[in-house]
Design brief:
The chain is an alpha+beta fold and 201 residues long. The chain has helices at 53-56, 64-74, 85-98, 101-115, 122-143, 147-200; strands at 8-11, 15-27, 30-39, 44-49, 59-60. The protein folds into two domains: 8-60, Thrombin, subunit H (Beta Barrel); 64-161, Methane Monooxygenase Hydroxylase, Chain G, domain 1 (Up-down Bundle), CATH 1.20.58.
Length: 201
């Protein structure tokens, strides 16, 4: 993927950056192209080799249409619910490294949901804060809205997500209660039938 000066890009785990210039440098006799990125959140500059763009997951910021899709994902009620800490942490770490805002949304949903029922470890709390900050900063830049306003919308979407999840869990529990007596009745009927047949003969 190629970028131009002025492009808004996302550098995984660093957040939103602006391509300020593209230049060539000779290092140990090898000439390489580099993107100079200014990271918006802390106003630092990082150099990314042009040849390594795909390797580090550098991508363009999402569009207005993709922001709508993102909010749909944040509020859909589907939450990864790993019980095993090691497996959960590995999956979430892998998602954060992809740089995909949709993967970060999954991390944000699952860890926020988990934090409502138990205390997160220091590392998971830090990951949750990072995912939320990166999502808010990207939406804020794309929609040209203040971070505080975007945070309110993200929190509302998450609340809706948890309400949908609770509703779905309640429906599943209700269906289980209904099917259990039906299954029990069927088992009783199946057990009684041979006895009746034996009596009749």
């Amino acid at each position: 993927m190629t970028f131009q000066v002025g492009d808004k890009v996302i550098y995984p785990n660093h957040g939103l950056g602006i391509v300020e210039r593209i230049e060539e440098k000779t290092i140990l006799g090898t000439t390489c192209g580099f993107f100079h990125l200014r990271i918006v959140s802390n106003d630092t500059t990082v150099l990314v080799p042009v040849a390594n763009v795909d390797g580090v997951g550098l991508r363009k910021a999402i569009t207005d249409e993709e922001v709508e899709r993102l909010f749909g994902l944040l509020s859909d009620g589907k939450i990864d619910n790993h019980q095993n800490w090691k497996g959960r942490f590995k999956d979430n770490s892998d998602k954060m490294r992809t740089g995909s805002i949709y993967d970060m949304a999954d991390v944000l949903k699952s860890l926020t949901f988990l934090s409502k029922s138990k205390s997160l470890s220091f590392r998971e709390k830090r990951m949750l804060d990072r995912a939320k900050a990166l999502i808010i900063s990207e939406i804020s830049e794309v929609m040209r809205e203040k971070a505080l306003e975007v945070e309110g919308k993200v929190d509302s979407a998450l609340e809706k997500c948890f309400m949908v999840k609770a509703r779905n869990m309640a429906r599943t529990a209700a269906r289980t209660k209904v099917t259990k007596p039906v299954k029990a009745a069927a088992m009783v009927a199946a057990a009684v039938a041979p006895r009746r047949a034996a009596r009749a003969s």
